[in-house]
Structure formats: C-alpha cells, structure tokens
Amino acid sequence: MSRLTKIELNSDQHAALEHASKHGKTHGFRQRCRIILLKAQKQPAHQVAGQIGCCMNVVYHWVKRYQSEGIDGLHIRAGRGRKALLCSPQDLPAVRAAVADNRQRLSLAQARLQTELGKEFSTMTLKRFLKSIVADTNASAAE
After folding, report:
1. Average pLDDT of the chain to the nearest whole number
2. pLDDT in tens, 129-141
3. pTM above the 0.70 mark?
4. Is residue 4 part of a domain?
5. How many Å from the N-terminal Cα to the C-terminal Cα in the chain?
6. Tally of structural domains, the chain
C-alpha cells in the first residue's frame, strides 16, 4: 500500500519550481524540482519515480524535505563527502617550506610533512593540494 503525499503549490511556488527545474545549477537539483512538480500534479510516487529514474523512497524523501524547508531544502546540504587532509590556512606554511626545501622530490617533502603535521597522506594528495594553491593564487592575481 502506498502513502499518499499531496503537495499544494500556489502560483509563486509553482513558477519558482518551474524556473529551477529548467535553469537550476545542478542536474540533481533540477530533478528534485521536477519530482515536486510531478507530485503537485497528483501523480503517484511510483509513476514519478519511473519518470525520473529513481525509487519511491527518494520521491518521498524529497517531498518531505520540500514540505519542511521549501525550495531551499531541495539543495544538497554542505559538509558531505570526505574532509580534506590538508587545509589551506593551517597547513600552507609547512607545505611551502617543505616543498621549497625539496623542490625536485615531492616524496621527501611528503615524508617531512607527514612527520611535522602528524597526518598520513599520499603524494597525489600533496600534488592536488599544490595545484589548488596555484589555482587560488592565479585566481587572485587575475582579479
């Protein structure tokens, strides 16, 4: 037996969801807006799930979030994913010093940083961190 979850939208909410479903920043956000619009047309969750390509629990989850938080609840919340091992403000001076001393051998810089910072990370993590520093520096220089 399915749950009947009904959504009543006024014209402003409907227009906002229509605009977001067509011009939203991410594909997932546009899909979630589409879920709400389809449910507002009184379609059952299994039909909405079939059209969107997800399961019914996903439909129920986003309907519940929309009812409690509005259109802002359809965005993915911050803080998801793995936290960075190297943080720019705290670790930047140590990384710059280690790389300056071992410019040609990042593995030596990595070993030094692991002992200084007390963190375990790969050479690829160090390379990615250095690339992000360069990207930040280039972006600030362009402004």
Report:
1. 90
2. 999 888 777 766 6
3. no
4. no
5. 58
6. 2
Residues 96 and 68 grouped into a single domain = no
pLDDT, tens digit, for every residue of 76-130? 988 888 888 888 788 999 999 999 999 899 999 999 999 999 999 999 999 999 9
**Rounded mean pLDDT, 22-50:** 94
Q: How far apart are CA 138 and CA 86, in angstroms?
A: 19
Q: Please indicate, yes or no, if residue 55 is contained in any of the structural domains.
A: yes
The parent domain of residue 127 ranges over 88-133
81 part of a folded domain: no
Please report whether residue 80 resides in a domain. no
What whole-number distance in Å separates Cα of residue 84 and Cα of residue 125?
9
Angstrom distances, CA of residue 69 to CA of 52, 62, 73, 75, 142: 22, 10, 5, 10, 38
Residues 70, 15 share a domain: yes
Q: One-letter amino acid identity for 125? A: T
